Amino acid sequence: MLVVEDDVRYAEWLRHHLDVLCPRASVSVLNLAEFERWCTTFSGRDCDLLLLACRFGASPEDPNSPGLTLLRRLQNQPAAPAVVAIAEDGNELTAVRAMQLGALDYLPKKLLSAERLSTAVLVALRRVERRVQKRLASLAHIEHDRTTNAARSAEAGGANRPGAASPAADKPPASSGDALQAPGVVALLTGPSGEDFIPGYTLRLKVGESEKAAVYLAASAARGHNVALKVSKSLRDDAAGRQFLEREYTAQQAMKSPLVVEIYDYGVHAGFEYLAMEYLPRGDLKARITRGVSERESLQYLLRIAEALQVVHQAGLVHRDLKPPNVMLRENDAVALIDFGLARHIDGGSTSVRTGQTGVLRGSPYYMSPEQALGDQLDGRSDFYSLGIILYEMLTGSKPYTGGTALDVLQQHVSAPPPQLPDTLARYQPLLTLLVAKSRAERFATAAEIVNAATALLASTAAEPQSPSLVA
User: Which of 162, 262, 271, 306 could form a disulfide bond with 235, CB atoms 3.0-4.6 angstroms apart?
Assistant: First the structure.
């Protein structure tokens, strides 16, 4: 999904709402200038749903309304995304024209509510789903025709050349993985591919996405093995100062530890930033939680993440986006923190960190501390709160706070009672309480304190039988 909006606060409101409505989606935010550049490199598969928030003018001929102009431009693309128009102004005439130009819905910005937005997005996603199904069916049909024609040609060749082998006999039967090599399917699943996209790296597969970047499994020519290659989704804007992947590179270079993912390379090619880092094929903690973790495993992961936070905080940083997808697992079950794009330096001698633009919320609503939800200055105890939410999720298999909108979730972090574990898990409640206290003054003061508390709790339960978590 892509949100286009010049008002940073409003864009973040839209993005947070989409994060809650569609937690598995990748949501990017661009301003109008960035979107103009994005349109020049649009491949037709970079975006499924576009929320276009801008002026639509007083009439369809208004030269000062970029909304209709951009819709016309998208209409000329071979595979335009589904579009929901969010109009700062406009009227019935511009609404009708926007729909004629392909917008699925036209929402006056001043009347937009979370409920109205949810309805529009869900309807649009159903349209996207039907479109993808048709595209895959078309690709399957093309592949079927290609295979059939190849088989007929082979039979004809075999009839004319006695003893000639069928091409199918020269190789083993196609696997399900081979089916994904049909023309167009690789691009559909992985985005850009080939050696020239980022020089020195051959993209193999898209393995994940963040708000502003896509992550690929890539072969590194210099290193001779696979790496994780993170590539920005928008062009570098030198006028804006240091870029987010550059900040992430600088932050992680300050933390040489196996508890933090290793960074190999940073650069800019054709205006796009890229970051090469070690590839950890075992996956992340989010996937591990879905398979179920025992109480003891939950404590062990908590201990390892707290040790990683010690490294982060000793480097003078606050992560600000600690969540299960940002905790990678090594083969020996050790953890490695990733995604320091939101990390900020602790000011010298102060316990606060610079939060960026005033009033702009960054991070996932599900794991955000009360002070982060309120837009206050942060310190390391904000990461401890996020860690507490992760502990609750590991033990119970569910998040403590959920809601229909991002605002619902954020309000619960600020004002709802602290999460309580079921009676069967009561022994972990004191530890949880010291992590997720609403007031940061009532939380653990340092990561070392969490390490000590988790170690002691592990020792006290070592001889006791362990029950599995509540995850099915």
Answer: 271
